[in-house]
Every structure is written in structure tokens, then in C-alpha cells.
Design brief:
Number of strands: 12
Order of helices and strands: HEHEHEHEHEHHEHHEHHHHEEEEHHEH
Largest sheet: 7 strands, parallel
Shape: elongated
Structural class: alpha/beta
Radius of gyration: 24 Å
Strand order of the largest sheet: 3-2-1-4-5-6-7
């Protein structure tokens, strides 16, 4: 009877050691396994609720127990080797071993080289790369004894397209360090432990994503459940399934899942593609590097050779102005300010709040609801459909301050205007 039950509940009695399991993706994976009756070691550092990041190791433990699992909350900052070792010892003492390790703890800062303080560089390197390495090292002796034996790192495929390094070099290095652990350890422990990486195809809605993207971003995200389901699919595979860089949607398609709307926070809404994936929705390189289609100047004006871009920006705004109507203003109700950098940069505005709408050079008469910072080149690309705003935002080419929901409204408007631009 017990073996029959075990077949139905594949992770029953298995012990999962999950870093960063007090919230978000880590907790979702824990809860999925808990439904099978798994033992979960919650290795995270949150003992008191943070105002912006809800959840502690103790609240997560309560949820895991309620879902049918057994929980062991351990205070672990993965930068501290002693805390990792202590948690591993406690896990083995309580549950008799470790079957699966999930390296989920991660730190992010989407800042360029000069804007990333050393303290932040150290945090990302120490949590992402070093933390993953040390936690794996501490768990491997016990994983070797397990019949299941999986290490799963929440890290991306190793993509050396420079576009993923350009805007946030330190973060990319730190995340790729986790992926290199997969590459090395899969080979080193072949036949003994399956070592794989899992990465989402689209942005996942977590508290961290709310902080990064602002309010309204959740409608462009998928739920954490998609990662939990993908991780579960990996854990079911044999030890010979190793050294893979898995995308959540791909493995679930292999499982026969066809309807991905169930994972969307807002079904039918466009999704933000995740970092490091060139194929979504079209090749990023083509999108990012395609030459700017400078709109044709209809009037015969002599153009200054030294300032070719300013003509493109000015002409773009002129065409936008021609597209304005009371209906567009009524549907949008927002004022946008553009801070354009580069040779012909400057401040421009698009007023879609006041009667008839307006565009112009300089600051708007009323306070802007959304301020967008980008280069003049990228601005023209964006308005002419050569660069998707979501892609520009995720890759750091576009910085947005203000109301995110209104920023998304502008993207919809751009899609309508692209034919004219």
C-alpha cells in the first residue's frame, strides 16, 4: 500500500533543501512538493516580516505543514558558510538525509557598471554565485546517498549575447556564475546527481518583481505556479537527466500542457519576456540592433548633416501629434515626459490628458504621470515598432518612473501608431 501511495505522490518522504524559500518562487516549489508529503528545509534569512517583502521562514513553515508536508525552518544567509553547514546538519538529523537541493536565493540590481556600488556587487556575487556553490558543496555528500539526487539552480541559459551584459554587467556575471555551477557540477557528478538549471520564459510575479517594475507590472507576469510545476517535472526525471538549461514553458509543453493562460496573472495580457532569452518573442538581437527606420520627411526641408537624429525625434513627435484625437485622450488620461539622452537629447512631452492632446519640446504644463529615460535612437526605434517597450525596459534601455499601468497604456497606443510610423 505504501509503495502504491508513493507512486501517486512522487515526492512523499523526500527531503528538499530550498534556499530563499520564505516567499516567491522558492516557497511555491516548496508548497508543490509539500502536497506530495515531502520534507522541506526552508533555508532563508527572513525571521521578521519586511514591509515590502511579506513572509518569513516561520509563516512559510506553517503553509508547508498545512499543505501536507513537514517543514524545518532554518535561518540561513547563504553568504555565511557556517549557517549553511548548520542547516544541512539539522536537516540530516531531522529527516535522515537530503534528496533535492534548490538553489533559489538570489540578489538583483539592474544597474550599469558606474552605478553599481561595490557593496551591491559583493552582495550579488556572494549570494548568487558563491552562495550556490557553497550550498551545493555542503549538500553533495548527502545527495550522493539519495536515489533521487537532484540539484536545481534558478539560473539562466549561458547566453553570451553582449546585450545581456551591457546594462547590468554585475548582475549577469553573478547569475551566470550559478549557471556555470550547473555546467561544472553536472559533469563532475555525472551518474550520481542530476544538476540542472531552470529559468522562466516570461517575468514571474513576485514581491521582488513589484519592487523592480512598480504597480501594474503583475498584469504582464505569470504566477509562480509555472516555475513550481516545471521544477516538479524535473524532479520526476532520472539522475541521467543532467546538465540541462531548462525553460519553464518548454518542459511543460513536453508534459502535454497546452493552455498557458492558467499561469497568467491576467490571461490574454501581453507578457514581459525574461532576461537572457533571445528567442522571445522574436530575436532580441534583431529587435535591438535593427537600423532605425527614420520616418520620411514629407516637406522638402534641408536637413542638417551634424544632427540627423533630432530630425527623427522631431518627425516622430509630429506624426504622433497627427495621430491624436479626443478618443485617444479619453482612453489614456495620462501625461508622459521623455528624457532623451545622446547627441540630440532633451525633454519632450506627450499630453494625453487634456482636451485634444498635445506634444512638444520641454516639460509639460501639468506634472507628468510617467517619466521615461532613454536614448534618442531607442526612442525612435520604440515608436516605429523596431524595439518593444517591454524588451527595452527589461534590458535596461528604458527606465520608467511613475505609474506603470499608464506606461503599459502607452505601449498599446504605440502598437496602434506603428503602422503610421
Amino acid at each position: 500500500m505504501r509503495s502504491h501511495l508513493f507512486c501517486l505522490r512522487k515526492l512523499a518522504g523526500c527531503t528538499l533543501f530550498i534556499t530563499g524559500a520564505s516567499r516567491g518562487i522558492g516557497k511555491a516549489i516548496a508548497l508543490k512538493a509539500a502536497k506530495d508529503g515531502a520534507n522541506i528545509v526552508i533555508a532563508a534569512k527572513t525571521t521578521h516580516a519586511h514591509p515590502k517583502l511579506p513572509g518569513t521562514i516561520y509563516t512559510a513553515a506553517e503553509e508547508i505543514e498545512a499543505a501536507g508536508g513537514k517543514a524545518l525552518p532554518c535561518v540561513v544567509d547563504v553568504r555565511d558558510e557556517e549557517q549553511i553547514s548548520n542547516a544541512v546538519e539539522k536537516a540530516v538529523e531531522k529527516f535522515g538525509g537530503i534528496d533535492i537541493l534548490v538553489n533559489n536565493a538570489s540578489a538583483i540590481s539592474l544597474t550599469n557598471t558606474l552605478e553599481t556600488p561595490t557593496k551591491r556587487v559583493d552582495l550579488m556575487m556572494n549570494v548568487n554565485t558563491r552562495g550556490t556553490y557553497l550550498t551545493s558543496k555542503a549538500c553533495i555528500p548527502y545527495l550522493k546517498k539519495s536515489k533521487i539526487a537532484h540539484i536545481l539552480n534558478l539560473s539562466p541559459p549561458l547566453n553570451l549575447n553582449p546585450v545581456w551584459f551591457k546594462q547590468h554587467c554585475a548582475y549577469t556575471i553573478a547569475k551566470y556564475g550559478m549557471s556555470m555551477c550547473v555546467l561544472g557540477m553536472a559533469e563532475e557528478f555525472k551518474g550520481e546527481i542530476a544538476v540542472n538549471a531552470l529559468w522562466p520564459k516570461t517575468a514571474i510575479h513576485t514581491a521582488a518583481m513589484d519592487m523592480l517594475g512598480g504597480s501594474g507590472v503583475e498584469s504582464q507576469c505569470r504566477k509562480v505556479d509555472i516555475i513550481a510545476d516545471a521544477a516538479y517535472s524535473i524532479f520526476k526525471k532520472p539522475k541521467s537527466f543532467t546538465g540541462n538549461f531548462i525553460i519553464d514553458e518548454n518542459i511543460l509543453k513536453e508534459e502535454g500542457i497546452k493552455n498557458f493562460d492558467v499561469y497568467a496573472v491576467k490571461p490574454g495580457h501581453p507578457l514581459i519576456p525574461d532576461f537572457f532569452l533571445d528567442e522571445y518573442p522574436e530575436t532580441v538581437t534583431k529587435k535591438m540592433e535593427s537600423p532605425v527606420a527614420v520616418p520620411e520627411v514629407k516637406e522638402e526641408k534641408p536637413q542638417s548633416q551634424s544632427k540627423p537624429r533630432s530630425g527623427a525625434v522631431e518627425e516622430t513627435f509630429r506624426i504622433v501629434k497627427d495621430s491624436l484625437s479626443d478618443d485617444v485622450v479619453k482612453a489614456t488620461q495620462a501625461i508622459y515626459q521623455f528624457e532623451l539622452s545622446g547627441e540630440d537629447g532633451g525633454t519632450w512631452f506627450l499630453d494625453l490628458k487634456n482636451k485634444g492632446g498635445n506634444v512638444g519640446f520641454g516639460e509639460p504644463s501639468d506634472r507628468a504621470d510617467v517619466v521615461m529615460n532613454m536614448s534618442t535612437d531607442d526612442f525612435v526605434k520604440m515608436f516605429s515598432g523596431k524595439l518593444k517597450p517591454t524588451m527595452a525596459f527589461m534590458s535596461g534601455k528604458l527606465k520608467i518612473k511613475g505609474n506603470m499601468a499608464l506606461a503599459i497604456k502607452l505601449e498599446k497606443l504605440m502598437n496602434q501608431m506603428n503602422a503610421r510610423l
